[in-house]
Write a structure and sequence with these properties.
Elements: E1 18-22, E2 25-28, E3 33-36, H1 39-42, H2 51-61, H3 75-87, E4 94-99, H4 102-117, E5 121-125, H5 134-139, E6 157-160, H6 171-185, E7 191-196, E8 199-200, E9 206-207, H7 210-223, E10 226-230, E11 254-257, E12 268-273, H8 274-277, H9 293-305, H10 308-332, E13 338-344, E14 347-352, H11 361-374, E15 376-377, E16 379-381, E17 387-390, H12 398-414
Parallel strand pairs: 3-15, 5-6, 5-7, 7-10, 10-11
Antiparallel strand pairs: 1-2, 2-3, 4-12, 8-9, 11-12, 13-14, 14-17, 16-17
Helix pairs in contact: 2-9, 3-9, 10-12, 11-12
């Protein structure tokens, strides 16, 4: 099928065309089967065409396909916000709004913090990814390709090192950089918020240092700065619990949601402390398609499936399988390019590096092609695109997961 009508500014990782999928398997238009370790880039924690989600969508489509909530409220939006407020593991009353995507959630969060604080400065982190809209581009901790050729971006935004055992940046180093920032670059009283991913997605599945997270929370409290947690990729069970910020022992003021919130239907949300969400004038938040009834139905079915017991079981099973195989490969000396394993729970990355420790980006490109030819779809991540991003559905059948890891093992062995 021709791509002539598609913008060539869209980068395509796998040059195939999919026809259909079921749980962790997809088929292209030639009938070839693949095991899917991409999951729509973290959207399909419940897999392709989860029966509960499909049935909820089908039923809702016979009742009401759309209504703009800010014109006339509808039941699915109201029901979902009630369920979400109970699902978010924080001690304070939760309020929020639904959006069409994670990037739109981030955009609205920026409006909310400006309204609540009267400040405009945002502090983000190296390696961050928060979206491709104009304001979120400046939050991203990476220039190429996102910030190239688009000129001056909305700001002001400053970046700090992201501390993680997965990238070798310590809590002390990040705090030192933060001290320098407020000594040299910007008055702390001008800062509206920090925005941070509890586990970086695009950055390479790097898990945030717990000590730093708690120090940052204290700093924000002392200086009346808001803390935004971007859980768009790490949320909804990806790390084995509802949201990744729980492992940090902190509560964010605002939380960005998206990707696996609705089983594959476009939906996002910004939720958090009720006074923050209520601070803008009437009409300051909203959107025509935001909280579409069909998307809300998919999200309600997703929450039905994501019980704590299910999330714990799915996450631990996937984590055990991945870590067991990875450590076996390291012990065997399977591949000269096999570097560290990053992330937590079922949100895992595998780094490819050269003998001198530099990123083996060329080998990862080779691995993507080898695996695709063998029937496994993988996704790159990291600043140098040298980290394999493993995003198989949490619901993947154990035998299919092992089959996918077998393919990955065979392809790693072939790298040159």
């Amino acid at each position: 099928m021709s791509h002539a009508t598609i913008s060539q500014s869209i980068s395509i990782v796998h040059p195939i065309s999919l026809s259909h999928g079921k749980n962790a398997e997809v088929w292209d238009t030639t009938g070839k089967r693949y095991i899917d370790f991409v999951g729509g880039i973290g959207v399909l924690n419940l897999g392709h065409c989860h029966p509960g989600v499909v049935e909820a969508i089908r039923e809702q489509a016979t009742k009401l396909t759309h209504y703009a909530f800010n014109a006339v409220p509808h039941a699915p939006y109201l029901q979902l916000m009630e369920r979400l407020s109970a699902f978010i593991p924080v001690s304070y009353p939760v309020s929020g709004m639904l959006t069409n995507s994670g990037a739109e959630a981030a955009e609205n969060a920026l409006k909310i913090v400006r309204g609540a604080t009267g400040r405009t400065v945002v502090i983000a982190f190296d390696g961050a990814f928060h979206g491709r809209t104009l304001a979120t581009l400046n939050l991203n901790g990476k220039v190429a390709p996102y910030k190239q050729k688009v000129g001056v971006l909305p700001g002001p935004v400053y970046h700090l090192p992201y501390p993680s055992a997965d990238n070798g940046v310590t809590c002390a180093e990040a705090l030192k950089a933060m001290d320098r920032l407020f000594s040299v670059e910007i008055d702390v009283s001008d800062v509206a918020c920090f925005i941070i991913e509890p586990v970086q997605g695009e950055g390479g599945f790097l898990a945030l240092d717990i000590e730093f997270a708690q120090a940052l929370r204290r700093f924000c409290d002392t200086n009346h700065i808001l803390l935004i947690a971007d859980e768009i990729q790490s949320g909804f069970g990806r790390t084995g619990q509802r949201f990744a910020f729980s492992r940090l022992g902190i509560e964010p003021d605002l939380i960005l949601l998206g990707k696996s919130i609705a089983g594959g239907v476009p939906l996002g949300a910004v939720v958090g402390r009720k006074p923050l969400l209520d601070n803008l004038p009437k009409g300051g938040l909203g959107g025509t398609y935001s909280g579409n009834p069909i998307a809300c139905a998919g999200a309600l079915a997703t929450l039905d499936a994501m019980t704590d017991a299910h999330l714990k079981t799915w996450g631990s099973q996937q984590e055990e399988a991945i870590t067991r195989r990875y450590h076996a490969w390291r012990t065997q000396g399977l591949c000269a390019y096999l570097g560290r394993m990053t992330g937590v729970g079922a949100m895992r990355g595998i780094e490819l590096v050269n003998a001198d420790g530099t990123p083996a980006s060329k080998q990862l490109t080779q691995l993507l092609e080898l695996a695709r030819d063998a029937g496994l779809l993988l996704m790159p991540s990291g600043k140098s695109r040298h980290i394999i991003r493993l995003l198989a559905p949490l619901t993947i059948e154990p035998a299919v997961l092992e089959e996918g890891l077998d393919i990955l093992e065979a392809c790693l062995r072939q790298l040159a």
